[in-house]
Design brief:
The protein is mostly helical. About 45% of the residues lie in helices and about 0% in strands. The chain is globular. The chain binds fe (ii) ion (FE2) (2 copies). The site of one fe (ii) ion has 5 residues, from loops.
């Protein structure tokens, strides 16, 4: 049961970036020569099972208290039923009509307690991601995906708590993988005691494909539904599964994925470094970049979308 003596602070993170920064600490950028980077930056799960435990402890010891509390809330409250409620609330998308650039500006109004010297405004993370993809000569839809991938975070501006907007995503309705960060917090999740949800495949058929699998609720799934009629399939996979680290990094859910998912996850993995490793001191000039991106948005999207 949830410990009622500990009234949870709904938003323990000083800013949403604290989660992103923590993911980057878990999955550091490999050095240019392909060798692993600094010691604190080991992969979350090593292939050597003896090492795995040790590194897992390191990671946990170094995690900030606010980040741990954030994961505790996320893992405690993301149940199969909770996700169905959030899907019923947000997927009809009757809350607003907005263009994509307007949504970016709206997201940028998200004010948090973060340190303005170290945290990048949301619109700048979007532009830094897109600009890095553009510099590498990728197709225009890929650049656009970089620009919009986090727009689902506007859920925070509708009063949704951090733990159901950001955080690593994972399937609900089946056993929680030990590869999900801080798996011990799932002991507080009522689904852990529901036998329907605690077999390897739970309510799903083996290799049924992720489209049939209900993921924990967050900004990825929400944005996917907003844009799904307008972008090519690899872009939609990037958007829908970019926070699914237990899937695209840990490969812990191959038993639910179809062959088609496996092929498309190449796109998710190609996108991930642009999301994680493009934060830089050099701030993008939003006004100068705007005409290029407005034209790109107009190539794929109608002037307004249902949110
Ligand atoms: Fe994201
Ligand atoms: Fe992002």
């Amino acid at each position: 049961m949830i410990d009622s003596a500990r009234t949870p602070e709904p938003n323990p993170l000083g800013s949403l970036d604290e989660w992103d920064d923590d993911v980057k600490r878990r999955y550091p950028e490999p050095a240019a020569d392909g060798s692993p980077s600094a010691p604190a930056a080991k992969p979350f799960v090593a292939t050597n099972p003896d090492k795995k435990k040790e590194e897992f402890r390191d990671y946990r010891a170094e995690a900030r208290a606010s980040v741990k509390e954030f994961y505790r809330l996320n893992h405690t409250y993301q149940t199969y039923d909770f996700v169905q409620q959030k899907r019923a609330e947000f997927l009809p998308r009757t809350h607003a009509r907005m263009g994509v650039w307007e949504a970016l500006e709206f997201l940028n109004t998200l004010v948090d307690d973060s340190d303005p010297d170290t945290d990048v405004p949301q619109i700048e993370h979007c532009l830094q991601t897109a600009e890095a993809i553009r510099r590498d000569g990728h197709p225009r839809w890929f650049i656009l995906t970089g620009l919009i991938h986090d727009l689902g975070k506007i859920l925070c501006l509708r009063g949704e708590p951090q733990w159901c907007v950001v955080g690593d995503t994972f399937p609900v309705g089946c056993r929680f993988s030990e590869s999900i960060v801080f798996p011990e917090f799932f002991s507080e999740n009522p689904d852990s005691r529901d036998s329907r949800y605690q077999t390897e495949c739970g309510v799903y058929e083996r290799n049924c494909g992720l489209d049939r699998v209900t993921m924990s609720w967050g900004h990825d799934e929400y944005l996917y539904h907003v844009v799904k009629d307008y972008l090519p399939e690899p872009a939609l996979y990037m958007i829908r599964y970019h926070s699914f680290y237990p899937g695209h990094r840990e490969r812990a859910y191959d038993h639910l994925m179809s062959e088609h998912d496996q092929k498309l996850f190449a796109a998710v993995r190609a996108f991930n470094p642009y999301d994680l490793y493009t934060k830089s001191e050099e701030r993008p000039n939003v006004a100068a970049l705007r005409p290029f991106y407005e034209a790109l948005i107009a190539e794929y999207f109608p002037p307004q979308l249902a949110w």
